[in-house]
Amino acid sequence: MARSALLNVMVQAALKAGKSLSRDFGEVQNLQVSVKGPGDFVSQADLKAQKIIHDELLKARPTYGFLGEESEEIKGTDGAHRWIVDPLDGTTNFLHGIPMFSISIALERNGEIVGGVVFNPATDELYTAERGGGAFLNDRRLRVASRRVLSDCVIGCGVPHLGRGNHGKFLVELRHVMGEVAGIRRLGSAALDLAYVAAGRFDGFWEMGLSPWDMAAGILLVREAGGFVLDFDGGTDMLGTGSIICGNEHIQKALAEVVKRPIPTK
Ligand code: 2AM
Ligand code: CA
């Protein structure tokens, strides 16, 4: 697997921030027993990871723009390129000592995602993709699962957070999907969910109310693994709408139909 210089920059940034998060995750596990909990500590871990990534990426490409979860967007002097970064996706898991979190770094060129890295430092799983070059888990080429019927499928989803999203609407989606599939999973990191679809572990995934940094790298992973990714309107404006439904060609279509089924009248 040959990585471009740009993808290598992204990988190095993810690995370096991953070391920092790993150290802090060890500490978080010790802090669970304190009454105040590790909340402030985790915010600091998050900010530290973003600074590491920002500095690595901007050192390599000082003119590119930078959109990161933890800061205001920085417009680059190069109008064509933008990094889209989530230094810690799955914050709630991290906070609770659950080793299911990730760093997500994407590169956008003229509005199109051309590079993506998702790294889970707790499992040392590094997912990478470049447009036209395929998707990889460490050195292994990825392919989405090939199941064609929903009743054989394990589907990932996101559950709206306390005080956010439309809980009633989600429950209708859940009710419809659980009546059709073999199993439903919720990891708590959208970037990892998408990586799991790319790796063929999940047959599909849906969620709404996401931010661009949760999805940008994962979308490219799924596409480069041969999957289909659309928003809830059946278009490709996932970053704009915050909604996503994906899987292989058949499962994406079938899952979208079930997720968008109208609310039953009785
Ligand atoms: P985060 O951990 O970076 O916040 C899981 O459903 C997804 O929702 C994750 O990608 C997670 O990203 C995001 N998420 C978690 N808490 C959130 C909140 N309060 N508001 C919006 N998104 C959130
Ligand atoms: Ca996130």
From TrEMBL:
Q: Which UniProt keywords apply?
A: Hydrolase, Magnesium, Metal-binding
Q: Which residues cross the membrane?
A: none
GO BP terms, alphabetized: inositol metabolic process; phosphatidylinositol phosphate biosynthetic process; signal transduction
Q: Name one Pfam family in it.
A: Inositol_P
PROSITE patterns, per database record: IMP_1, IMP_2
Q: What class of enzyme is it?
A: hydrolase
Which parts of the sequence bind Mg(2+)?
69, 86, 88-89, 214
Cofactor(s) needed? Mg(2+)
Q: What is its EC number?
A: 3.1.3.25
Q: Name one GO molecular function term.
A: metal ion binding
Known catalytic reactions: a myo-inositol phosphate + H2O = myo-inositol + phosphate
Q: Which family does it belong to?
A: Belongs to the inositol monophosphatase superfamily.
Protein's name according to its UniProt entry: Inositol-1-monophosphatase
Taxonomy of the source species: Bacteria, Pseudomonadati, Pseudomonadota, Alphaproteobacteria, Hyphomicrobiales
